[in-house]
Here is the input.
Amino acid sequence: MTFNNRELWLSFFAILLITLVYLFVVISTGSVPAAGEFFGHSLGIFGFTLMIMTEVLYTMRKRARSARWGRMSSWLKFHIFTGLVGPYMVLLHTSWKFNGLAGIVMLLTVLIVASGFIGRYIYTAIPRTADGVEVASSELEQQITKSEAELERWLSARAATASSLPKYLITTEEKERTQFFFIIGYVFLEWGQRIQWWQQKRRMDTAVRAQIAQLEKMIQQRRVLHRQVASLAMARRLLSLWHAVHIPIGVSLFTAAFVHIAAAIYYATLLH
Amino acid sequence: MESRRFGCLSMTGIISAALTLVMIVGITIVRGGVLFSPGTLSAQTGAETWGGVQSHAEIQGDCAACHVAPWSSETMKDRCTACHLDLKEQFQDPESLHSLLFIDNTLLTCIDCHPDHRGADASLTVLDANRFPHDSAGFSLNAHQKTSTGEFFVCSDCHETDITKFEANACERCHRDIDAVFTQVHIETFSHECLACHDGVDTYGSSFNHNAVVFPLEGKHAEATCSKCHLGASSLGELQSTPQECFACHQEEDKHNGEFGENCAVCHASSDWEEAIFDHTLSNFPLEGEHANIACEDCHKNAVYEGTLSACVDCHLEDDEHKGEFGTDCSQCHTTSNWEGAAYDHTLANFPLEGGHANVKCEECHINQVFQGISQECSDCHREPVYHAGSFSADCASCHTILAWIPAKYTEQHTFPMNHESDGNNSCQTCHVENLETYTCYECHEHTPSNVASEHREEGISDFEDCMECHADGREHDD
Here is the structure.
């Protein structure tokens, strides 16, 4: 399973652009835009609209189970983009005042974003197809067998090259770790492996380095599959637990936000 | 297998929504509308108690005390005046500040100037230059967004102690920073009472470009002070309605006393009055020759332009060297390009200039510029030559033609044959060498003195000095 962070970069640039516009307004008017004024209000409306989209569109796609509506992975990226940019606009809408219900809504927004980050982390620990369908354990076992056979063939064909590497890098044995560690600590483990491989490759010729890169990729694939098998049950349990926390926070957030909007319309927008 | 039901519609979702609503309603019941308050109300207190409280902070949570329902016919202003009875009184007077503000700005609300929910210590009066309808107070802030130091204006820049009172020298202090010389001149011209003329709608100063309006300041207009044209204008409308016709400002300067109408620009440019360019062909006296080079006032004395006499003599009477002898129409002989080189048609006189007369300068006959009464007798101009030895009358023409003195033709009785030894065209000098009184036959033919003497002595003639005595017909005598 491949994964890139394009949606995070897009979110970063969108946030940067919004920040620049916001700073321009602050400098040109000499004050922080109030929540009830045109710019501040616009930030709130657009930000909340994005948050609604974050919540509704991805959920709908998950339940549609139809490729006609695009890949799940694409919807997840859009979900992450709107889930970051929307709350940021809402944060600017507050004009840095967190009184009453508006403050509670902002707090819940921060919580839901933080929860989203955690959820994404756990979600990616469960192997899925591009359409978001979970891969079964038996299928994972088959993929491991296939991967190891392929690795074995490669090692026998290039025994000399393989012998130049430390044994611990190409061993098929994974250390015994808890499932929880596989989920929470796999990032650190992965980075440790990459550094070790990099140190080995920098000592080699360019021609050998290309072969070693191929080997590294195969071993990495085997490692991920082993980890996913080992942590699948725990990941599913954590994801279920996360849902139990994330959904109430989200529902509370939107409930409070709608009340806040109604109150703002009643007390401010329609004030005469 | 994931549930196909939306998370918000799950049991936990519904319970969460319900709990949230319960909490909001519960807090609202217990604490009033604090949850919906965007901030703490002001604790600022006044000298008097209004509506039973001394500060807005005392009604924190009682939203309905100030906020009205959207569907209510009551307004927030009604809620304000329900407590602030002094304001209610002010609104009865249409000339009061608050009345003026609301009359001019129908969308204005109390909170535009008196916002709350900004903290217990925050002021209840915020006259944001961008929001407060300062125009309604008699002075627009359109041109007063930033001070001379480039900072945004604050109320205290002009209202030092009391927001309702204008500090007298506020304008001068800032405008001296911008342009000290102009400000000094402006104050000396118009006094310190800036507000007597300015209502803030103008943008006088470096940013104002008069050339962008319908009357660009060109030439001398660019040097004029504003008051030259806009004297007494105290509003944008009055500035814009300043007359743009030349005569509106320059009538008193009109040297022509209105003779040329009211549009000075037909002849004058804005660069200088003196550089007037009048198309004289529009008059019945086009300026040609030297006339094109003279100053207007040479003909138009005392700046009188209409009815100027156009006969030559009207201007050139003193120039007339002929002392009126040739009448008043100089153009009969002279052109406009030069007095000299006049071409007089002498046939108009009784003495056509023919022959040798045609090349004679006028003054040779018309001595001392006397043209009339000149004698036409030849002898009045031509003295009889010594050669004539007084033998002829004054009638030169009896022998001479007008073409030349020579040849002349003698028509009277001549004792000696004129055709002696010739075809008759002998010159007088042939015989009359010295003058017409004397003659000589010597040096002609064979008549040398020695021959004549020898031949006559052979004949015994001793007296042979007077040839004509014996040879009157020019013939030789043998007897």
User: Anything to note?
Assistant: Chain A touches chain B through 34 residues (CB under 8 Å).
